[in-house]
UniProtKB/TrEMBL annotation:
This is Putative L,D-transpeptidase. The active site is at 269 (proton donor/acceptor), 296 (nucleophile). One of its GO terms (molecular function) is peptidoglycan L,D-transpeptidase activity. Pfam families: YkuD. One of its GO terms (cellular component) is extracellular region. The lineage of its organism: Bacteria, Pseudomonadati, Chlamydiota, Chlamydiia, Parachlamydiales.
Length: 335
């Protein structure tokens, strides 16, 4: 082989090697891009806990926080959790009843209101007790709207000589809530009832691991009652409010202690309603016990309506903790 042919052969061989290397490199880059895209999608779906900036780094399994994992970590002490259901002791006109309420007899003329007959709304204002609370006691059942009253009818109200506040302990790892009243005069707290709740979606970047914050918040006065077909604005769109907030809304108003997010935008509300498989407009109770909200605390309709009737006329605080046993409440526990 002469010299020109040898140079030609070597040049062709070199070009072939370069082409093969380029093909392998392109394939590898494509594979890396697909892997990166898959990881970003997992983050968007909440399957990973790392941030977008760390998408190229694997997170150890022990650091992946999911609701189920949190529950497993705390289940060992569940048998020590307090339980109660003393709700009827608030509304019952006979004994036993909780010491923060009293039974009154309706009269149209009262010494604290001169010049006109007294109505249910007047009793509610005088005793700092919601009309819904009075209606449930008056009717002897969970009817919060029927407020027909006649002279001699009896119903419960909060005692004027008791300075009380309510505390809602919300355990974000167990999706449960405990309702306490705190008697400031006696420096005692009493558990009234515990509830199952729904909470915010998994958000590993937050202190709670969820969209629901931690800390103590005071609940606000701008409460709302929603009924079917009632329209409102949510995220800039007109919607039927029950489809998002259920039948009741109680907002967080102020951060009190250890709050991990501003109060604005958070609250307690009912399970959302929708048309079910039978074509009936009904609440979706399946969300209770799950982590699906934008951060608010959800309750079943019966529970949120009950809670609403009790707490809206008194100072009320939501204490959100990862573990019930971390909650710091005022006063000593009383039976």
């Amino acid at each position: 082989m002469n010299l020109p042919k040898l140079f030609f052969f070597l040049a062709v061989s070199l070009l072939g090697v370069i082409a093969v290397v380029a093909v392998f490199k392109k394939a590898k880059d494509k594979s890396d891009q697909e892997l990166q895209a898959a990881k970003v999608m997992e983050i968007e779906l909440g399957e990973q806990v790392r941030s977008l900036s760390g998408a190229g780094e694997e997170t150890p399994t022990s650091e992946i926080v999911k609701p189920e994992t949190i529950k497993e970590e705390t289940r060992r002490s569940d048998e020590q959790l307090p339980t109660a259901n003393r709700i009827e002791e608030l509304f019952r006109k006979g004994d036993p009843k909780l010491p923060i309420v009293e039974t009154v007899v309706y009269k149209s003329r009262v010494d604290w209101l001169q010049g006109r007959p007294a109505w249910i709304s007047d009793y509610a204002s005088h005793y700092k007790t919601s009309r819904h609370f009075i209606a449930r006691s008056l009717n002897g059942k969970t009817d919060y709207f029927k407020q027909d009253v006649a002279i001699g009818d009896r119903f419960n109200v909060f005692r004027k000589d008791k300075d009380i506040a309510f505390y809602l302990v919300i355990d974000t790892s167990r999706s449960k809530m405990w309702l306490y009243y705190y008697d400031k005069g006696l420096d005692e707290r009493v558990l009234i009832k515990n509830y199952d709740v729904g909470l915010g979606r998994v958000a590993p970047q937050n202190p709670s691991g969820l969209l629901t914050p931690l800390g103590t918040y005071k609940l606000g006065e701008k409460v709302a009652i929603y009924k079917p077909k009632q329209q409102g604005t949510f995220n800039g769109d007109k919607i039927e409010m029950m489809r998002v907030f259920g039948t009741r809304w109680i907002p967080f108003e102020k951060e009190i202690d250890g709050a991990t997010a501003p109060a604005k935008g958070f609250g307690i509300h009912g399970a959302p309603w929708a048309v079910n498989e039978k074509g009936v407009f009904a609440e979706d109770r399946k969300c209770i016990g799950k982590y699906e909200s934008d951060g608010c605390v959800r309750l079943a309709s019966d529970d949120v309506e009950e809670l609403f009737a009790i707490v809206i006329t008194k100072p009320t605080y939501a204490v959100l903790v990862k573990d019930f046993f971390d909650a710091k409440l005022p006063g000593k526990e009383a039976k």
